Model the fold of this input.
Amino acid sequence: MQTNDTRVAPEALISKFEISRLLRQDQSGRRIALLGTIEGKQGILIAERAAFATESLEVLKAFHAAISDVKNLGDNDIYRWYLASSGVDGEDQQSANLKLNIIWPCTQQHIKKYSDQVLRMVTETPEIYHKYIRPYMSAKRDEGRLNWVFNIIEGRTEQEDVILRDQGHGPEDGFLMLPDLNWDRKTMSSLHLLALVERRDIWSLRDLKKKHIPWLRYLRQRLLEGTVKMYPDLDQDQLKLYVHYQPTYYHFHVHIVNVMLEAGATQATGKAFGLENLISQLETISGDEEASMAHVSLTYFLGEASELWTDIYEPLKGGVRPLQN
Done:
C-alpha cells in the first residue's frame, strides 16, 4: 500500500500509463479498454468518447461548422454516407472520427423513425396482418421507397461494394451482400453487412413458407461463407444473422453482424428475429408446403409516432376499427 510520500497524483496517472495492448473495443468503437503499466505495475485504462453536446442550437451549429475532411463512402437514391473529422488529433492532424449519414430529401416517416418516442409492445395476429398490415405494406411499396434497393440489385449503384453475389439454384434464388450503410467498414467488432434477395415476392418474414426452408438454409450458409472469406479474421460462429419485423422497408433482407456488436434497439427482442430460429419455426409449423409465417401471431414493439401505431394499433386498443387503405 502506498504511503502519502509515494502516492502518485491522480492527474499524473494518465501520462504515466504505458500501453501494452488493447483488451476490448465496444459501444460501436466509442469505448476501449487498454492494458498497460504504471511504474511497473499493471493497470487498465478505459477510454470513452464523450457524448455529443446538444444543450443548445448554437452548440449544434458549432458542431456542424467543425465538420471537415469529408470523404464520401457511397450514395444511393436519397441515402449518402461519409467519414469525416470533427477536429484534430494530438499531432494537429485531421482525424476521421465521425461516421455521417445523410437522408435527403427525407420523408415524414424518416423524421418519425429518428425521433425520440415512447415504445409500445403489440401483438399482430394473423387476422390483423391480413386485414390491416398487408394492405399497409402494399401501399408503402407503391410509394417507390424501394428504388435504392432495386438500384443495387439491378446493378446501377454500389456495385463496387458488393461482397457476394450468388444466383443460387434457380431464377428466384439470387441474392447479394454488401456493407450496411451504418458500418464504418473497418471496425471488425462492429461489423454489419446486409443481404438483399433478388426475388420480389417476399416482402417480410411474413411471406416465408415451409417451401422456402431449403432456400433459407442455402442463403444462411452462403452468407456465413462469404463473410469469413471477405474478413478472414472472423469465424462463422462469430456472426449473427437476423431479420427485422417490422422492417424499415418491405423487401426481404438479412442483417449479418459480429456477435460482439452491442445489441441496441435494432437487435432487441421484439425487433430482431434470428434467421436460424425462423427456419426452425417454419419446420415446426403444421401444414403443407404453403404453411407460412403469415399464419402465426407475432409480438414486437413500435414507436408511438409510427403510422402502424397511430393508424392501426392505437385504434384497435381503443376498440375502434382502423381505417383500411
User: Anything to note?
Assistant: DSSP finds eight helices and 14 strands in the chain. The longest strand covers residues 18-26.
